[in-house]
Amino acid sequence: MKKILFLLMACMSLSTWAQRADYRIIPQPKSVTTDTTQVFSLQPSMGIAYDAGNPEIARNVQFLRQWIEEFTGVKLALTPDDKKAAVRFSIGFPADKKAKKGKQAPTLTAQQEEAYAITIDKNGILIQARQPIGFFRAAQTLRKSLPLSAQGSAFNAIDFPFTKIQDEPRFEYRGAMLDCARHFFPLETLKQYVDALALHGCNQLHWHLTEDQGWRFEVKALPELAKKGSIRNQTVIGRNSGVYDGQPYGGYYTQEQCRELVNYAAERYINIIPEIDLPGHMMSALHVFPNLGCKGGPYPVWEQWGVSREVLCAGNPETMTFLKTVVGELCDVFPSKYIHIGGDECPKERWKTCPKCQAKIQELGLKEDGKHSLEDQLQTYINHEMEAFLRERGRDMIGWDEVLEGGLTEGGIVMSWRGIKGGIEAAKQHHRVIMTPTTFCYIDYYQLKDQWNQPLGIGGYLPASKVYSFEPLVPEDLNEEEQKYILGPQVNLWCEYVGSPQHVFYMMLPRLDAISEVQWCRSDQKDFEDFKTRLPHMLRIYDRIGLKYCPKVE
Length: 554
Ligand code: ACM
Ligand code: ZN
Fold this sequence. Notes:
Elements: H1 2-14, E1 15-16, E2 19-20, E3 31-42, E4 47-49, H2 55-72, E5 77-79, E6 87-91, H3 94-100, H4 110-113, E7 116-121, E8 124-129, H5 132-145, E9 154-155, E10 158-167, E11 175-179, H6 187-199, E12 204-208, E13 210-211, E14 214-215, H7 223-229, H8 255-267, E15 271-278, H9 283-288, H10 317-333, E16 338-342, H11 349-353, H12 355-364, H13 374-392, E17 396-400, E18 413-416, H14 421-428, E19 432-435, H15 438-441, H16 464-468, H17 480-483, E20 486-493, H18 501-508, H19 511-520, H20 528-545
Parallel strand pairs: 1-9, 2-10, 4-5, 6-8, 11-12, 11-20, 12-15, 15-16, 16-17, 17-18, 18-19, 19-20
Antiparallel strand pairs: 3-10, 7-8, 7-10, 13-14
The chain binds acetamide (ACM) and zinc ion.
């Protein structure tokens, strides 16, 4: 008897009884109808349907199985027989099949392709989706709904209240930018970043790879570029204090590492958009190739922050050869439909007095138009060359909103960062737009009023509530037709003052939660007070998966 009691107590210390799932997650699904009086009890002996013949679906099944075990200790068996499984997957919605009968299949939006439904009743958990990506989104929803067992212990069962969840994202483009040029982060951090984006239903990682302060992308035809251009001799302390740390700093990503990240991200339905920022923000390249600057150098890899007046010489034909070599290899490594060519903050001071740049203005026959200076038009010439180069390779060019200034050709996409004005103007001209205004989306700004007890930042104040309040379609300025050109919103994390992976996640979380609800939910579905009640469970998840976050929201 004593023995049995002891065994029972030992078992109980290793496992706890059933705990409930809770579907109040972030981002909030479009529709959740729950009957809390009835539950389906998922137990370790049960199966999850697994068809090894479909590797993409099988991968998503494995993700869900792994996440359930990680959060609850409940390990499900892979079951080839669908009828015996407690967790089942079905491709296609019955309503689509009905609608299709005798008719041509309607064309679906990108968002509709991502749609999923979860039905939980006495028969178990059924996940339906049009495409395997929908299974991934559903798996993330279930993951976030799970109760968390104490680390190392397991629940005996998970009680899922009966429910019907239907969901699809509001915007087709749901991005986050990370600046790995001011500071370099290891590939492992990039993978964690991808995981964090996937947890929040984002689908685009905009990877800022080159800057005045460091070149991070290996170019095989120009091996010196990353080798030398990735290292600055020292870094200014604080906000351009004039005092330097005396420590060389650097690092770059090999093409093999970039490919590894592209594949890792693709398995999590995240596209990586690489950015080579041109023709400004190029001190690191000028350090290696001083002949590409108007003055001929020498140029250091920049050791301070800000906007350098030293930029690529637009009149030197070697500049275009250089850019096409770099962007050509970029296209070889990154399959993304979108390629970012920067275009922001390019001072024209050097071009105004450079004989080569002035000769190019003459050669191109550029004329004063009362709106744009000749030098602004010279930058437009570079943009158009790059856009044509990318179009030949089947890619679409993205540029910061400065690219709008001299006129954008048809396929170009504008990233509106200096407020929403550029985005509105671009949409009115029927250019596609990504909305990422400083006022709502620059998560390098402080998130709490009490800046003094925060790590040093660039300045500004952007609390999670402000991010949450963003309405990317700006209905007061754009009509329904024009709104169609807004692809979606993105947050940007510039890293002048962010030097460690912990700091990256501290800046991101929970503002990524806030933007994810902007990306997924209609404005009439959003409620910041309700959001705050759903946040604590997300924070527990971050603790569980080892992500740092800001514990307070304002
Ligand atoms: C930017 O923030 N310079 C695009
Ligand atoms: Zn020049």
